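Customer escalation, tier 2.

The customer says the design service returned an amino acid string that "doesn't look like it belongs to this structure." They asked us to rerun it and document both sides in this ticket. The original structure tokens are below, unchanged.
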């Protein structure tokens, strides 16, 4: 169950297995084993790292499928992604958009604004 939750959240955030593992500072094969439920009992430290990378709380990773579904982007986000595809944005270019979004988050945090 934990592995399925992690995989679902990772994909909903647009992260590859490699990206997620690198950001959590764990090996790609270890993350793959967790997602495929070959390792069904990862340490709490690993779960905490993944929660930070996936921007969710621990309960979401450890919880039921319903709590994970709540974290999946709403239809507006899916429409936005479809619009990006239609406008010719390639998957490889998404990293550039992430950099812009991270800058905006940083700027809002620096100015005391909310990032929601």
């Amino acid at each position: 169950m934990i592995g399925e939750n992690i995989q679902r959240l990772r994909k909903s955030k647009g992260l590859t297995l490699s990206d997620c593992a690198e950001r959590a500072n764990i090996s790609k094969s270890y993350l793959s084993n967790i997602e495929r439920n070959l390792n069904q009992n990862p340490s709490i430290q690993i779960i905490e790292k993944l929660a930070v990378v996936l921007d969710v709380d621990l309960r979401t990773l450890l919880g039921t499928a319903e709590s994970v579904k709540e974290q999946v982007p709403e239809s507006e986000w899916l429409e936005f992604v479809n619009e990006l595809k239609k406008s010719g944005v390639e998957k490889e270019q998404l990293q550039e958009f992430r950099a812009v979004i991270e800058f905006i988050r940083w700027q809002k945090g620096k100015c005391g604004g909310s990032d929601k």
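Tier 2 assessment: The sequence is consistent with the input. The mean pLDDT is 80. DSSP finds eight helices and no strands in the chain. Sent an explanation to the customer and offered a walkthrough call.
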